[in-house]
Specification:
The protein is built from two helices and seven strands; from the N terminus they run βββαβββαβ. By secondary structure, the protein is an alpha+beta fold. It is globular and about 35 Å long. The two termini are 26 Å apart.
């Protein structure tokens, strides 16, 4: 089962999206956007940059969990992962983004 982007509206009316793996697990979350078109541009940027390992910033959270940010060519963060129990699990998350993002379908739930 292929991954998908799910575009949503937050309670405050802003827009955001998540990238889900084929099993429904959220592997990447966007920032908040004031316009739906901006969120759609964010999805396009994820598709464009996901395949390039140089665009991944591997980090550790304050609680010791591993995580990553996906950055655009201009170094702006375009997606953030969940916390992972280990660097190896984080690297599996990155591999999942690389495998799913480019051809992921879009489920538009934004109103």
């Amino acid at each position: 089962m292929a991954g998908k982007f799910v575009l949503k509206t937050a309670k405050d009316g802003q827009f955001y999206f998540v990238l889900e793996a084929g099993n429904g697990q959220v592997i990447l979350t966007s920032e908040m956007y004031t316009a739906k078109a901006s969120a759609e541009n964010g999805i396009a940027s994820i598709r464009k940059n996901a395949g390039d390992d140089a665009h991944y910033e591997r980090k550790e959270q304050a609680n010791g969990h591993a995580m990553f940010n996906l950055k655009a060519a201009n170094h702006q963060v375009i997606g953030t992962s969940q916390g992972y129990s280990s660097p190896a699990a984080r690297d599996e998350g990155i591999a999942s983004v690389k495998a799913n993002a480019e051809k992921a379908a879009l489920e538009d739930l934004a109103v």
